[in-house]
Amino acid sequence: MSASASGDSTPPQASPGFDDLYARIVASAVLKDIWRAAFGSEYPDEASPFSFVTRTDLTALLHGLALDPAHRLIDLGCGCGGLAVHIARQTGATVVGIDTSTVAIAQARALAKHLGLRSRVTFLESDASATPLPSHAFDGALCLDALQMMPKPAAVLAEIARLLRSGGKLGLTTWSFSEPWRGRAVVPDYRPLLEESGFAVLAYDEPDGWKARQLQVYDLMRKRRAELEVDLGATASGLLLDEAENAPAALAKSRRVRIVAQLRE
Ligand SMILES: C[S@@+](CC[C@H](N)C(=O)[O-])C[C@H]1O[C@@H](n2cnc3c(N)ncnc32)[C@H](O)[C@@H]1O
Q: Could you tell me the distance, in angstroms and rounded to a whole number, from the CA of residue 194 to the centre of ligand 1?
């Protein structure tokens, strides 16, 4: 869900804002209701994303990555693991999810255990720009609605290039910002950065209808402020309502992008 919930000064090593959010959002019926209303059939309910990822995004990225049961995938900024688990079940691939939020990683591990997937889906608390994982260990990588909040996207892309085998593929959804906003890296176009990091860009799309969906989510959050405050408590609802108030103006200066890139052989 959140494009910006961690605020201006969150260090890359920790996600305190996200810990507060993840501690409350999983049980929030109001939040789910808002996403379902704004996204309609585009909401990938079964994967419980905490993001603006749509069903069409997932289909396009999984088609681009062409994962099979022999493949290993890394999901960077995996949140509470719903998407990682969903993709593991859908493709048969082995998945490692990493995130800086302690709470999210604990929830992700509990989900994998609950579904009997612990041998194939594992989670690790780590910064995406410096993981302890071995080089060239993955066939594919995903980074869904998370790169925009990592202060050094070039370092993250270099880390992904290190983790992927030659010819491995990256699926990415994020927002490109053409002006500074709340500490976001200013990257009007990710293609030069990807090329410099050793990737060939296979697909670079602005998803249909993304802005209307996102604005609708913010509109519904503002309208259901009182319910959200009860459902999420003061800290988590404060983070989301701050985004609902302030992010709409920033969307005019940003563009949502869905990318498939391949590490050059
Ligand atoms: C909007 S959520 C998206 C979660 C998930 N990908 C999804 O689509 O449901 C962004 C996630 O990025 C994580 N994150 C932020 N900075 C990070 C970093 N430097 N390294 C790893 N994860 C990070 C946050 O903790 C949060 O869980």
A: 19
For residue 23, the enclosing domain spans 16-27+40-208+253-263
- The answer, yes or no, to whether residue 215 has pLDDT greater than 90, is yes
CB neighbour class for 169 (10 Å; exposed up to 12, middle 13-18, buried from 19): buried
> What residues contact residue 122 under an 8 Å CB cut-off, 6+ apart?
95, 96, 97, 109, 112
Whether 3 is covered by a domain: the verdict is no
pTM of the model: 0.94
Cα dihedral sign for 111, 132, 19, 152?
negative
Cα separation, 250 vs 8, in Å, equals 14
Lookup: tokens for 193: 């950065």
- Take atom 23 of ligand 1 and give the residue whose Cα is closest: 77
Residue 230 domain flag: no
Give the total number of structural domains in the chain. Answer: 1
- 87 part of a folded domain: yes
Buried b / exposed e over 73-99, threshold 16 CB at 10 Å, is bbbbbbbbbbbbbbbbbebebbbbbbb
Q: Do the domain assignments include residue 56?
A: yes
Pocket probe for ligand 1: among 10, 24, 62, 100, the residue whose CB has the most ligand atoms within 8 Å is 100
Q: Is the dihedral of CA 48, 34, 24, 19 positive or negative?
A: positive
pLDDT digits (tens, 9 = 90+) for 143-175: 999 999 898 999 999 999 999 999 999 999 999
